[in-house]
Amino acid sequence: MLFICFVYLRPTTTSALLTSLANMAATIAKYALTSRTCTVCKRLHRSQFHTNSKLKNVVSTDCISTLPRKSEWKSVVGLEIHAQIATKSKLFSGASTQYGAPVNSQVSNFDAALPGTLPVLNRKCVEAGVLTALALGCTVNPISRFDRKHYFYADLPAGYQITQQRQPLAQNGRVDYPHHIKGAGHNSVMELRSCQILQLQLEQDSGKSLHNHCDNISLIDLNRAGVGLMELVTEPDLRDGEDAASFVQELQFILCEIGTCDGRMQEGSLRVDANISVHKPGQPFGVRTEVKNINSIRNVSKAIDFEIQRQIEILEAGGKIENETRSFDAQISKTVSMRDKEKVLDYRFMPEPNLPPLCLYKRESVPLGTDLDSVVIVEDVQACLKELPGETRKRITEIYDIPLGAASALVREDGLVHLFESLMKKPSRDKEAVINVLLNAFVGLLRAQNCKASECPIPLESLGEICDLVASKDISRAVLQKLLVVLFKSPQLGVTEILDREHWHIIKDRSIIEKTITEILDTNRALLKKVLKRRDESSNAIIGPVQKKLGGLADLQTIVEVLQDILDKRGRT
After folding, report:
1. Burial zone of 59 (CB within 10 Å; 0-12 exposed, 13-18 middle, 19+ buried)
2. pLDDT tens digit string along 147-177?
3. Label partner for 216 (CA 20 to 30 A): which of 177, 272, 356, 404?
4. What is the pTM of this model?
5. pLDDT per residue as tens digits for the range 226-244
6. Full DSSP string of 435-496
């Protein structure tokens, strides 16, 4: 608010004051013009705005991603995922692939594109590609070919990338993945969705540009140049950011389980490009934009949802979507334009002249006299394929009749499914209690101790006894956590021995609980008045104080029953 005070001034100062006031007014007017109230967050923003004539609102670009999706629009998302192959050497050279090595310390002559050097295909990379293709249900092509993809970046010394554009290693796969519909944790409602894999191809990675903004220079690190990549291209089967994030998370889990990629997105081992468009039902797909190099599961969701909402807002305002490449700025949670795609790049694909066709064999089709160490046999690779996460999830869901959310949570923790099945060998054991203990307490203990389930020192018999105590409600949640910690440090102790020593048995004695509730109500008249007035919510108000007084050992059901008896008596009086 601007306060203007009129005072008597000498003529010499009046002109200066008027000039100062005029400048101040101009500044305020300028700010008022550039700052507008966003109808989403109800705050002033000094940023770009999109005006929606239908909704008669003004939305800051800072808040676009928080807007609700409009039901009359449909979004279409397809992904291109680059997964670095977990091998010790590169795709076409013997240089190391160790992450974090000193700059330009892992570069062979071929990686630097020195004249006269030739590519030598890494068999382990081919086997990893075949294993991944089989895990994703792809059809492995018996013959695939390498191509040169020409483009000129400073971190691509040869001026081309060796890839498999026209005849890839594998095609036509499918990934089934669990997706949260609502809720959180293992009790959330989930459904199983599916995304088609168009193709899987092998290619070499480029180097990395290092930008020094202080000195205004860019430097090149070629350690990553030539590292083996699997590029996975999906069909446009995904609906939005959360859907895409669920798919990427499942794919990441599969790759890590079969050991073909470490999945460390923060290190660039797994990078996601998203192609996004929106349209109205019954109309053709809209113009798509591409968001490059998304480097975390969370950012996959945020980037795609922001881009969907950005396109909807532009179209609603009568604008036009540009066919362009964008990047996601995680600091401001927005996509930013990099370059347009109006002019199609001519990569001048040509067959790689220095590599013969890549031939994969079934054992019966290997030519006589062939050195078996020099070829890849599909059956041998398939023999290395263990039970996949989706298969495990389906099996335990059917055998033990547990929700998809619980099965997914068990599968995602290393060694937890084996532990669950071992505990469930006792026919009378309650599965809900076992899931409760494992997912709500045991996993937290493992993470706090930085330990895997297979390395945990707690005996299986002790863990089973704890599950039975939880099922019979003879142990509280607070005691459960403390009991697991004691057992982790002293696994030789018995469960009953610890409960007796620490006086951790659950309190079900009605007289003790009645005395405690009575004392609390007699010393807190406001609380008594509240519980008498709102009896349907009275137990929620009293449980906390009772548990605090009894050390978290009181049985919840007994508290509720005793409280109702007390209120009935006081209500009659």
Report:
1. buried
2. 999 988 889 999 999 999 999 999 999 999 9
3. 272
4. 0.81
5. 999 999 999 999 999 999 9
6. HHHIIIIIHHHHHHHT--GGG--S-HHHHHHHHHHHHTT-S-HHHHHHHHHHHHH-TTS-HH
